[in-house]
TrEMBL record, chain A:
Belongs to the bacterial solute-binding protein 1 family. This is sn-glycerol-3-phosphate-binding periplasmic protein UgpB. It holds the Pfam family SBP_bac_8. InterPro entries: Bact_solute-bd_prot1, SBP. Keywords: Periplasm, Signal, Transport. The keyword Signal applies. It comes from the Bacteria. GO terms for cellular component: periplasmic space. The complex is composed of two ATP-binding proteins (UgpC), two transmembrane proteins (UgpA and UgpE) and a solute-binding protein (UgpB). The keyword Secreted does not apply. Its main location: periplasm. It is found in: Periplasm.
From TrEMBL, chain B:
Belongs to the binding-protein-dependent transport system permease family. It comes from Microvirga subterranea. One of its GO terms (cellular component) is plasma membrane. The complex is composed of two ATP-binding proteins (UgpC), two transmembrane proteins (UgpA and UgpE) and a solute-binding protein (UgpB). This is sn-glycerol-3-phosphate transport system permease protein UgpA.
Length: 440, 303
């Protein structure tokens, strides 16, 4: 009897001890971050989170890889509908409108204001901030941003008698044909899987071509694609011609186009600056990189970004919002940005971080890492080059790709393919407009 | 005669009350309810909605999702692609499996190794199988593509829709031949040896024995397998398409089930995706019913 009566008391005492301990070292507020970074950049994310968690004892970010971008956005939707969403999600740039009008998010600039964090938004690189802004305020926290650049094989260019790729498409085309003809390389360029981004969307931005009305969707949901009336049509016709002449090669399924370049088969490769890490690791060739070409006689504008941003899901506790804000504050720091830029290959998000990298001499040792930043910072963005705000952008992009494939297969000519792509794209935009009328 | 008297006896013999059979059925019914009926009903509801994926905005749009589908060229294309794909896959699978099954008896040495090799593809995950096929036939690096080209045949599944279709039909059939093979081997074992021997004594060669005796007796098995092959082609070839062609080029291999995935999962157009899955299920049901109504009558179940 005696023993049993002391037992609860002892247990209570122990519990009290534990609780007082907990009060003294309050467990940090934990927030969940679902991301889509895997491989090397997945390890970088873990490092980033570890650094943040060690830098303070109040907040803790738990980073979880949820697969690729599609899986992250689907996982987020499922979790949100099940009312158990994470705090931060990494969503690809094409999902901007889906997230913005989802009613499921807190806009990042509002969150930072609410939690009393001051971030110098004006210092963000313009096309980066511009892409993720809504009515002049950032809706999502930019995270991994990239831009396409042109990688090239130095030896093959030299062999054909050129220093480097020409600045304009016309001259560049002649070079590719000369390279193939001279036998310096088997093919001129390898078609990247995201060619719609580098060779159509960015092509439009750099050459200041209107992609859609209403400032590429920034000014309203009633935007309509118009790229079937711009230089995009001769651009895709050019790709088709290259394909027929063996100057352009498609890697296809089961094989990565990057390997066509790194193995020395193709002389050039249009790809994201984030491809640096893969090319540095795999290429046995002497390579370099340069800016995307532009059309003769045009003043080239800035390129646009790709990648993803961090969105905050609404409905979390105030202290958790504090934790999110503290993490974003840490992310925006020039030191963090500089480290991320160097570690991941993505561009720095702020001009301060860019200046630091320059001052450090980073671009002396890796000059090609600066290209994307310079290209993004080139001139003042116009309404054609700031970015794209289209609802259901992924769907419209897939319709466009299907039409380009029909062109490549010889089923349609360039004008017909782009007309059909625009027609299908506009139906997709109208459906989005119908759903979200009055919300933008 | 015997069969008709046995059947009612079978039905009543084991259960005296309704309680026990209901209990025994319950787990299966629960699984069906959770993983089939509830999702199906939700898909049916979703098919009439235009909805934001997060569920913030939902409009009831009657049959708009369906009319939009039938007006869409890519959906009509997808229906044709599916028909050709499942038919070709069915024919290839059954013919090859039949030949292999009938040959089993004639393999004297290493018969178990022979069976083992044929059954192997079933153990390979569809995605892996798809990646291997895509690689082998890749015009830039694939060894088989290289052989094809060395015969002077143009081959590029990345550009040519027919090549791509051929490739996915072969890959999907290869993956499924073993399934048909098992059933056909079992079916052939059930063919009475006495019949075959009698035919052989009467001077019928192996080809004649196959067409005149084995094949008619395999009727029920073949009927079952065609139904299963259609179901496989309709629903389970998704992973192979995803790994080999992603529905391309220009939608040439975009079968209905892949389109459901693409529009729902990638494009987040849930209403259209739900409408498509409802239609796909209706097609599959109709096809199965038609098969039972017209083909099954010709099948002879008694030996």
């Amino acid at each position: 009897m005696k023993m049993t009566s002391t037992m609860p008391r002892a247990a209570a005492g122990a519990l009290a001890l534990i609780m007082s301990g907990a009060a003294a070292w309050a467990a940090p507020v934990e927030v969940q971050w679902w991301h889509a970074m895997n491989g090397v950049n997945g390890e970088r994310v873990d490092e980033l989170v570890k650094k943040f968690n060690e830098s303070n004892d109040q907040y803790k970010v738990v980073a979880i890889n949820k697969g690729n971008y599609d899986e992250v956005i689907n996982g987020t939707i499922a979790a949100y509908r099940a009312k158990r969403p994470p705090h931060i999600v990494q969503i690809y740039e094409r999902g901007f409108m889906t997230m913005l009008l989802s009613d499921a998010i807190v806009q990042v600039q509002d969150l930072m204001d609410k939690t009393g964090h001051k971030i110098e938004w004006a210092d963000f690189i313009k096309p980066v901030a511009g892409f993720y802004s809504y009515k002049g305020k950032l809706a999502a926290m930019p995270f991994n941003s990239s831009s396409p650049i042109l990688f090239y094989n130095k030896d093959q260019f030299q062999k054909a008698g050129f220093d480097k790729p020409a600045e304009t498409w016309g001259e560049f085309e002649k070079q590719l044909y000369a390279i193939k003809k001279s036998g310096a390389a088997e093919c001129g360029t390898a078609l990247a899987t995201d060619y719609h981004w580098s060779l159509i969307e960015n092509y439009s931005a750099i050459n200041d071509q209107s992609y859609a009305t209403k400032a590429n969707g920034y000014d309203g949901l009633d935007t309509e694609f118009v790229y079937n009336k711009t230089l995009v049509v001769p651009q895709v016709a050019r790709l088709k011609k290259w394909l027929d002449d063996g100057v352009l090669q498609i890697a296809g399924q089961g094989f990565s186009p990057e390997q066509l370049f790194t193995s020395g088969k193709c002389a050039t490769y249009f790809a994201s600056t984030a491809a640096h890490s893969g090319i540095e690791r795999n290429a046995k060739i002497a390579w370099s990189a340069t800016f995307l070409p532009w059309e003769e006689g045009r003043q080239p504008k800035n390129s646009t970004i790709g990648g993803a941003a961090l969105w905050v899901i609404k409905g979390h506790k105030p202290e958790e919002e504090q934790a999110i804000a503290a993490f974003f504050d840490y992310l925006a720091k020039p030191e963090t940005q500089l480290w991320w830029h160097k570690a991941s290959g993505y561009v720095p998000l702020t001009n301060k971080a860019y200046e630091m990298a320059k001052a450090e001499g980073y671009y002396k040792e890796s000059p090609t890492r600066e290209i994307a930043v310079q290209q993004l910072n080139r001139g003042t963005p116009t309404e054609n080059s700031l970015g794209f705000h289209f609802g259901n952008f992924t769907q419209a992009m897939f319709a466009q790709r299907e039409e380009v494939e029909a062109l490549f297969a010889g089923k349609k000519d360039a004008q017909q393919a782009m007309d059909d792509a625009v027609k299908r794209g506009n139906e997709i935009l109208r459906q989005y407009e119908r759903l979200n009328k009055g919300k933008y | 005669m015997v069969a008709t008297t046995l059947e009612p006896g079978l039905k009543h013999a084991h259960f005296r009350t309704a309680g026990l059979p209901a209990m025994l059925l319950l787990p299966q019914l629960l699984i069906l309810l959770l993983f089939f009926f509830i999702p199906s009903i939700r898909a049916l509801m979703q098919a009439f909605l235009l909805a934001d994926p997060f569920g913030a905005t939902v409009h009831f749009v009657w049959f708009d999702n369906f009319t939009a589908l039938f007006a869409s060229e890519s959906y009509r294309n997808s229906i044709w692609v599916t028909i050709w794909f499942t038919l070709a896959q069915n024919v290839v699978t059954i013919v090859v499996a039949l030949v292999l099954a009938f040959a089993t008896d004639r393999v004297v040495r290493f018969q178990s190794a022979y069976k083992g090799v044929i059954l192997l593809p079933y153990a390979i995950a569809p995605v892996i199988a798809g990646v291997i096929w895509a690689f082998l036939f890749n015009p830039a690096v694939g060894p088989i593509a290289f052989c094809i080209k060395s015969f002077g045949i143009a081959w590029d599944p990345n550009l040519n829709g027919w090549d791509a279709m051929l490739l996915v039909v072969l890959a999907a059939s290869w993956k499924h031949i073993c399934y048909d093979y098992i059933f056909l081997v079992a079916g052939l074992l059930a063919v009475p040896k006495s019949l075959m021997e009698a035919a052989a004594v009467d001077g019928a060669g192996p080809v004649k024995r196959f067409f005149q005796i084995a094949l008619p007796l395999l009727g029920p098995t073949l009927f079952f397998l065609t139904t299963m092959n259609f179901v496989y082609g309709f629903f389970e070839t998704f992973a192979i398409i995803d790994a080999v062609t992603r529905g391309g080029p220009a939608g040439a291999t975009n079968i209905l089930v892949y389109k459901v995935y693409q529009d729902g999962f990638i494009n987040l157009d849930l209403g259209s995706s739900a409408a498509q899955s409802v239609l796909l299920m209706t097609f599959a049901l109709l096809l199965t019913l038609l098969q039972f109504k017209y083909v099954e009558r010709k099948v002879n179940y008694s030996i």
